[in-house]
């Protein structure tokens, strides 16, 4: 259990509207938990090891609530399609390659290195349907020191022959073997049930996944109401469901007793939003992906006003960048277009709100994570924004906003701590 002090210009969210900053302050980690932030270092902490990052920004580690590790290889390629064509033309053919463990080894090394070197300290990650390659990804994620939920994907229908499990039985059996192998194997890497989305999972498979969810008390991740054609398809596949979310709910894989994160929620109906709120389902807002695949603009302002649990996702490779800095500025920008072009009553998301979503908002999926309040797990990122010189005086929060808009996470990350361990 590590204990130490970080000194620098500290910035963290208390709530979506309150961004706290302390210039030249002290952030204390004791037994891997945050003891708070201080202007002057209290006597009792004077003997702890001090990391002096004077003049640098210190923020909580950021949380990527939704990304696809096997898609990292083709990020920024073939972006001229909408969801269903993009899946068929790009995603599925790349994911099929992960039956080859040598390929998985190479691709997942590149992915895990990139995530380690980003401002992200925690992530919810889709692998592919391949059990062995998913284990490879989990081994590599564990080595990064980051905390992650990793999912072996389930898909037993409406999928190409080289990326489709033979039956619900085989899919569930393989999933159970993978869970048994991974559930107690790691310190920082955990299995999460991952039915890809309703179109690729038969009713029989969903029932079997619920049984596994209960048996092992696993969280769940999937996709929800991302694209209009997809939603229409789901309504045809599940004629008895009141909404796409209700289809997951009919298998009890939508919050309540199964902690759940759903990516996108661009076109969630009122009743679907009500159900998400009632069941405590997390929304992973993925603005870059929603733009690249012409999916639409998710009404984040209304989710915030309604008190839904919301965080941000890179959704690589629908999103082309793993950067949560980028997801923060995209969130603000997309909300401005929504306000101007769709609904003038939906005030744009502020920088403070978007930073909150990337830290404390998404962090809640992992427990008390994403802030420097007392008792929070100690995840921190140190950014050297002197790589972005400026002639004028700027406050700490202005420096943070600018560092995020100007992508200082590409070369400005000086140190990173996860659960009190220094990983960079
Ligand atoms: N829906 C089902 N699979 C996917 C995927 O891989 N990416 C995105 N963006 N949406 C999906
Ligand atoms: Fe996705």
Element layout with pairings:
Layout: E1 4-15, E2 18-30, E3 33-38, E4 49-60, E5 62-68, H1 83-96, H2 101-116, E6 120-126, H3 131-144, E7 147-151, E8 153-154, H4 168-182, E9 189-191, E10 194-195, H5 203-216, E11 220-224, H6 228-237, H7 244-249, E12 260-264, H8 270-279, E13 282-285, H9 287-292, H10 300-305, E14 309-312, H11 324-342, H12 351-363, E15 380-383, H13 396-405, E16 413-418, E17 421-422
Helix pairs in contact: 2-3, 3-4, 4-5, 11-12
The structure holds guanine and fe (iii) ion (FE).
Task: State the main characteristics.
424 residues, alpha/beta, Urease, subunit C, domain 1, TIM Barrel, seven-stranded mixed sheet, four-stranded parallel sheet, 13 helices, globular
Say what the CATH topology of the largest domain is: TIM Barrel
Helix count from the secondary structure assignment: 13
Shape: globular
Provide the helix percentage.
Answer: 25-40%
Question: Rounded to an integer, what's the Rg over CA atoms?
Answer: 21 Å
């Amino acid at each position: 259990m590590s204990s130490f002090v970080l000194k620098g210009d500290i910035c963290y969210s208390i709530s979506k509207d309150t961004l706290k900053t302390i210039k030249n302050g002290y952030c204390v980690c004791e037994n891997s938990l945050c003891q708070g932030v201080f202007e002057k270092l209290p006597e009792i902490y004077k003997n702890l090891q001090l990391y002096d990052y004077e003049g640098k920004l210190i923020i909580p580690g950021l949380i990527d609530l939704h990304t696809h590790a096997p898609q990292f290889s083709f990020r920024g390629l073939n972006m001229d399609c909408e969801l269903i064509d993009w899946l068929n033309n790009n995603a599925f053919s790349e994911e099929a390659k992960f039956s080859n463990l040598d390929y998985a080894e190479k691709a997942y090394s590149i992915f895990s290195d990139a995530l380690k070197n980003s401002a992200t300290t925690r992530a919810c990650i889709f692998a592919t349907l391949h059990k062995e390659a998913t284990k490879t990804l989990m081994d590599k994620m564990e080595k990064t020191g980051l905390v992650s939920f990793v999912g072996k994907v389930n898909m037993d229908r409406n999928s190409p022959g080289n990326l489709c499990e033979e039956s619900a039985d085989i899919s569930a059996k393989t999933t159970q073997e993978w869970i048994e192998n991974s559930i107690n194997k790691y310190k920082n890497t955990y299995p999460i049930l991952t039915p890809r989305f309703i179109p690729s999972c038969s009713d029989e498979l969903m029932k079997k996944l619920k049984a596994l969810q209960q048996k092992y008390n696993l969280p769940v991740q999937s996709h929800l109401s991302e694209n209009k054609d997809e939603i229409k398809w789901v309504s045809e596949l599940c004629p008895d469901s009141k909404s796409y979310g209700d289809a997951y709910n009919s298998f009890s894989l939508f919050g309540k007793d199964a902690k759940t994160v759903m990516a996108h929620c661009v076109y969630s109906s009122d009743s679907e939003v009500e159900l998400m709120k009632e069941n405590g389902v997390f929304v992973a807002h993925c603005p870059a992906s929603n733009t690249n695949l012409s999916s639409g603009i998710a009404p984040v302002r209304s989710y915030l006003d309604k008190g839904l649990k919301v965080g941000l996702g890179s959704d690589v490779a629908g999103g082309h960048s793993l950067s949560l800095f980028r997801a923060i500025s995209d969130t603000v920008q997309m909300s401005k277009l929504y306000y101007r072009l769709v609904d003038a009553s939906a005030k744009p998301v502020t920088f403070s709100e978007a930073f909150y979503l990337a830290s404390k908002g998404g962090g809640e999926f992992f427990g008390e994570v994403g802030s420097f309040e007392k008792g929070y797990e100690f995840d921190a990122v140190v950014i050297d924004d002197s790589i972005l010189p400026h002639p004028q005086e700027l406050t700490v929060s202005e420096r943070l906003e600018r560092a995020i808009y100007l992508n200082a996470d590409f070369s400005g990350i000086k140190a990173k701590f996860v659960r009190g361990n220094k990983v960079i």
